[in-house]
Amino acid sequence: MVTGGKICVSIFASDPDRALAAAVSAGEAADLVELRLDAMEVPDPAFFLSRLETPVLITCRPEWEGGCFRGSEVERRDILMAAIRDGAAYVDIELKTAVEMRQLLLAAAKEKGVKSIVSWHDFKTTASAKALESIFQEQCRTGADVGKIVTTARDFRDVLRVLGLQELSHETGFPLCAFCMGKAGVISRIATLEMGGFMSYAAADDGQPAAPGQLSVSVMRRIMEALADGRD
After folding, report:
1. Annotated catalytic sites, by residue?
2. What is the Cα–Cα distance from 60 to 42, expressed in whole angstroms?
3. 3-state secondary structure 75-109
């Protein structure tokens, strides 16, 4: 298993049957499978949750957070509530979600024993260290189980700022997924796990990456295994 954290395989496909097949295939290498319901023609969490043995993270990313979901927030709320009700292991709730809806989903998840991830993404750039710390602190205050901060790196300095959030995570005891998208950010997807990050995301070996710079799960596993061998 990965030192310091989990590998989550993101399934990004419009056809539910293809998505299910990819999730089943990825299950052997994944600690967790993320179903990106916003990419699917029929976003039905029960279809997947009744058929998968690997723990499932349900995400329904709206367009305003870089996702594909074009429906109303009421529709998105109902999809996520169904995922919580039907036995998802984790549910992703964007930090920018309206406070009333966010708190409703967090409370429902807690009641059902579903772990909540409160997420924040920047598909264009990486904020200052002060701004990133502010986002982290806001995530802590939501009462979620895990935070997720993902930015787009232009160079190594952006990567270092985001990875530096793991120190705050360690100090506060609030689990955090923190890494960067893009070519410059690829290394952060591995380094975050070595630094105690809660989880990093990979693409299915035969699937479409859900974000720029996402490695396939087999490549990520090989790198992590090589690093583990180097410590022996």
Report:
1. 121, 148
2. 12
3. HHHHHHHHHHHCCCCEEEEECCCCHHHHHHHHHHH
Please report how the helices 156-163 and 129-142 are oriented relative to each other, as an axis angle in degrees rounded to 10. 30
Tally the residues of the chain.
232
Q: Is the pTM of this model over 0.85?
A: yes
Tens of pLDDT, residue by residue over 114-134, are 999 999 999 999 999 999 999
- Which residue type, as a one-letter code, is found at position 140? C
pLDDT tens, residue by residue, 103-112? 999 999 999 9
Helix (H) or strand (E) holding 11: strand 6-11
